[in-house]
Amino acid sequence: MKWTDINDIAIELCDAHPDTDPLTVRFTDLHRWVMALPGFDDDPNRSGEKILEAIQAAWIEEAE
Fold first, then answer.
1. Does 64 have pLDDT greater than 90?
2. What are the angstrom distances between the C-alpha of 33 and each of 14, 25?
3. Residue 54 belongs to what domain range?
C-alpha cells in the first residue's frame, strides 16, 4: 500500500483499531499507525496533512 491508497488504508485501520474513534486520533499517531500496517510500503515523508485528513475521513466512513 501507498499513501494514495486511502480506502485500503482506512479498511486496514478499522480492522487494526476496531475500538478507536477515528475523530480522537492525532495525526502523529495516525501517521505512525499507517506506517505500521502490514503491506504498507511508502516513504514516510510523502504524507502530509491533506493525506492524513483524507485517511481519517475514509476511516470515519468505514467505521460507520
1. no
2. 11, 10
3. 6-63
In degrees and rounded to multiples of 5, residue 17 shows phi and psi of -135, 65
Q: Is the residue at 31 inside a domain? A: yes
* CB distance 34 to 55 below 8 Å: yes
Count of domains for the chain: 1
* pTM recorded for the entire structure: 0.94
Angle between helices 49-63 and 27-36 (to 10 degrees): 80
Give tens-digit pLDDT for 14-58: 999 999 999 999 999 999 999 999 999 999 999 999 999 999 999
Contact (CB, 8 A) for 13 and 37: yes
